Amino acid sequence: MTEQKVRWGVLATGGIAATFTADLVDMPDAEVVAVASRSAEPAKAFAERFGIPRAYGDWESLAYDDGIDVVYVATPHSAHRAAAGLMLEAGRNVLCEKPFTLNAREAAELVALARGNGRFLMEAMWMYCHPMVRRLKALVDDGAIGEVRHVRADFGLEGPFPATHRLRDPALGGGALLDLGVYPVSFTQLLLGEPSDIAARAVLSEESVDLQTGAVLSWESGALASVHCSIVGGTATAASITGSQGRIDVPDGFFFPDRFVLHRAGRDPEEFTADPAHGPRASLKHEAAEVMRALRAGETESPLVPLDGTLAVMRTLDAIRDRVGVRYPGERADTPGSPEITPEVTSEVTPEIAPEVTPA
Asked: How far is CA 276 from CA 132, 258, 360, in A?
């Protein structure tokens, strides 16, 4: 890529799209040149808000805009397969919000499209790009706490969310697991990789989506992880990593920490704090910077958020749903992620319905 600035297109106009775009327009090496929605008015309003020159009332116009280097897909996750697939088939590079798709089958289809077309694709798992999370992982990888024995992480929102809210709509992939549980699952797999065994329990709503879910993940090394997510109770969003020679505690906001504490026997606790130069703890600039670095380097995958890792997380989410009995329309009753009838792979446009719930 020889452009001085990376030219971004934004697909969807909800809350997370606005948050990400606000960070993009503040980056000197990024330029937001187009936005698209399912209708013209929200696209025009979004464009006026952020000074974006082109606004489209359909997805296809964005997909075939050759003046775009990469598209940020910010639709609800029930539309990620269709939206990202359309962009990839049109030759666009894609950053797709989390959870990557509804299930592992859809995720594998997107990865195959990207690899087959030689296009860049990355899940917007901003946690993996966060400087403090990278620092924590480096300490663990360097053996600061010995061999990891247990990881604990939680993410819950107080709610309550009415039955009409998308978080409780099966057709939109509702429930705590995909919106919130993806964070503790991704955190544990960042440190331990894909688990070998999974046990889970959930409390389901009348609509048969999970109101809260707890899971125990295990690895052949003997490591365990305890993860929890909820849309009926606000949690501390804390995490702890226990090793054979110490422990790291993240007291709050483990997916965007501003501090964590390293405990080792015979030593005083060591507190690690964020560098003010990295900006606000909730900044999405770090994931945007990683996308632009990769594009300039000619890479089609990010080493920080590898596609194989994304696929592994989706398989774990599918397995948890299988254990607790949450299945979405079109999936077989016996296996989440498997269609009732295998459909032809298409990029049929799915309506943009509601903004994603974003961590505060």
From this structure: 11, 10, 19
